[in-house]
Amino acid sequence: MAFTKKTVRDIDVDGKRVLVRVDFNVPIKDGVVGDTTRIKAALPTINYLVEHNARVILMSHLGRPDGTGFQAEFSLEPVAAKLAELSGLDVSFVADTYGEKAAEAVAAVEPGKVLVLENVRFDKREKKNDPEIAKTLASYGDVFVLDAFGTAHRAQGSVVGPAAYLPAVAGFLLEKEVDTLTGIFAEPERPFVAIVGGSKVSSKIGVLDHLIDSADTLIIGGGMAYTFFLAQGLSVGNSLKEEDWVERAGEMLKKAEEKGVKILLPVDNRVADHFGEDAVPEVVSSDSIPDDREGMDIGPKTEELYAEAIKGAKTVFWNGPMGVFEFDNFAHGTEAVCRAVADADCTSIIGGGDSVAAVNKFNLADKMSWISTGGGASMELVEGKALPGVEALNDAE
Ligand code: ADP
Ligand code: MG
Predict the structure, then answer these.
(1) Which residue among 208, 324, 335 is best mutated to probe the pocket of ligand 1, counting the most ligand atoms within 8 A of its Cβ?
(2) What is the pLDDT of residue 1?
(3) Which residues bind substrate (predicted)?
(4) Which residue owns the Cα nearest ligand 1 atom 7?
């Protein structure tokens, strides 16, 4: 599916004031920026605008301030410094977002230069999508660019507001994310193998449902597998289970069968007598989980089965770890699947916060075709929902 909205390529930015909503929501501790993935992900758009002589005004949220004004730990000042360091561009920062100081700083931005505004969430009107905020922000620019994929699913002031007053287009990150994550439902190269894990069926129902419409094979792992086991009449001991979702899980298995989608569930499991870092894994087959044990990871036979299915794939979408990968004793299944995806000759797309953390933990990020920068936003796309931020942009001609 082609991206249907205008992008920065479609407009003239020479000498213009370009207001860009980025996602600079990075981890910060004691004023030091940790992971810089999100800053780097915004660089293609920022560099393009600078190269095309725009006056670039950047805005973002950071963390969850209470919305009553400045809070040092959520200031974007260290992020602006990090952006200058990573990009080599002329970046300035103003400790204001909606006031006179911000307006003055915006007026002073020269072509080819970059200004970072203070955290949009220091004012609670941002989250309420207050029209006053939208108007103030819109007054800073001649055009609005949305590149904050990670917040594009939230209809908040700085995400959707300026689009009501200014020409509004997508940045490169937003375009690539939406293209990639909707592309798996349009024309995936087949076989398309989807892998879904994580703790709960209930949180992934929309994802599973939509993937069954498109995938050839659906691999299920993680805590959610046990609710599917219950639907098959197996006993699961103390494993994570959602009794209220057993019927729904059974319906999903039926839907897959009707559509000719192959579902793979674990054939064996690493179980433990308690949930903890120090728990010792024992391998049991799926039809003989003892009453006093809980499933913490897929087992070695399942790893082989899943790796074999992934090996033949041309497209892989993966969301959700296969086990409690935070504990080294139960990270094996997730690592095996991750390596199989990395080794396969396929387009590999990874979405979801914990799955991305797992890929990074195993140092396999550079072996993947695309790692989504947005947890919630990527899940909404994979559920088949439209993102309010994207909806608000101008349609491509
Ligand atoms: P993502 O963030 O990639 O979408 P989720 O948030 O859905 O993934 O799930 C990740 C969580 O699922 C991890 O914290 C992991 O420990 C947990 N999990 C995986 N397998 C199990 C299991 N068998 N029992 C309990 N929790 C599990
Ligand atoms: Mg998660």
Answers:
(1) 324
(2) 55
(3) 23-25, 38, 61-64, 121, 154
(4) 198
Q: How far apart are CA 285 and CA 229, in angstroms?
A: 12
How far apart, in whole angstroms, are the C-alpha atoms of residue 2 and residue 178?
9
Pairing mode of beta strands 217-220, 262-264: parallel
Same fold, 8-172 and 180-382: yes
Whether 320 contacts 224, CB under 8 Å: yes
Domain boundaries, the chain: 8-172, 180-382
Q: Is 339 an annotated catalytic residue?
A: no
319 CA distance to ligand 1 centroid (A)? Answer: 10
Tokens 């041309």 found at: 314
Paired tokens of 309: 């299915």
Neighbours of 7 (CB within 10 A): 20
Query: pLDDT by residue (tens digit) across 121-162?
Result: 999 999 999 999 999 999 999 999 999 999 999 999 999 999
Q: C-alpha 129: how far from its chain's center?
A: 22
Residues with CB under 6 A from ligand 1: 197-199, 203, 222-223, 240, 295-296, 319-321, 323-324, 326, 352-355
CA 384/CA 368 separation, integer angstroms: 23
Ligand 1 center to 256 CA (angstroms): 23
Q: What pLDDT score was predicted for residue 397?
A: 86
CATH class of 180-382: alpha beta
* Amino acid making up residue 311: K
Query: If you average pLDDT over residues 55-73, what whole number do you get?
Result: 97
- Tell the CATH topology of 8-172: Rossmann fold (3.40.50)
Predicted confidence (pLDDT) per residue in 172-204, tens digit: 999 999 999 999 999 899 999 999 999 999 999
Helix (H, G, I), strand (E, B) or coil at 63: coil
260 is annotated as an active-site residue? no
